[in-house]
Amino acid sequence: MPNSLSQEEIASIIHFIRGKKIMLDKDLAGLYEVSTSVLNQAVKRNKERFPKDFMFQLTKKEGKLLRSQFVILKQGEHIKYLPYAFTEQGVAMLSGVLQSKRAIIVNVAIMRAFVKLRKTLSAHRELAHKLNQLEHKIEKHDEEIQSIFKAIRQLMLPPEKSKSKIGFQINSS
């Protein structure tokens, strides 16, 4: 049942393609408990709801890449149709197109997974920013520490012998 959908399970089928977080038609169809062809037919009947920034079809290269990375098909099987990729907005639009209780419940779970993923990525960006700041401070301190060591080393050097003699000197000319 839909309540058993965990955000971690959903997050595991969110992929990054073309710099966007997407879900594949096959994965969404599985969550909605419909066939991929039924899902895609519903989308095609409502094409105006799915502009290119909501949904796009993968290229052959992207399809092969996904197949090798995520083992979409079993060995020896071939992709008959290139998969469709749905962005977060496209997934949100699906609940209205599929018009079932399951679609609504699944969409709520998916939206929560996208939000959690966004928060996680944001936290990682903040952490990376703080690490960069710390690294910059350390570099500055390193330069200061190096100059202190240089000054200490100069103080540790034996004094240079003075070429002039100390005391009164009588010129013998």
Describe the structure.
By secondary structure, the protein is α+β, with helices and mostly antiparallel strands. Helices cover 58% and strands 9% of the residues. It has a domain at 2-116. It has helices spanning 7-11, 25-32, 36-45, 60-70, 88-98, 101-156; strands at residues 15-17, 20-24, 55-57, 84-87. The longest helix has 56 residues, at 101-156. The radius of gyration is 33 Å and the shape is rod-shaped. It starts with 6 loop residues before the first helix and ends in a 17-residue tail after the last helix. The model has no long low-confidence stretch (mean pLDDT 79).
Search tags:
173 residues, four-stranded antiparallel sheet, 6 helices, 9% strand, alpha+beta
Q: Topology, please?
A:
Layout: H1 7-11, E1 15-17, E2 20-24, H2 25-32, H3 36-45, E3 55-57, H4 60-70, E4 84-87, H5 88-98, H6 101-156
In short:
It contains six helices and four strands; from the N terminus they run αββααβαβαα.
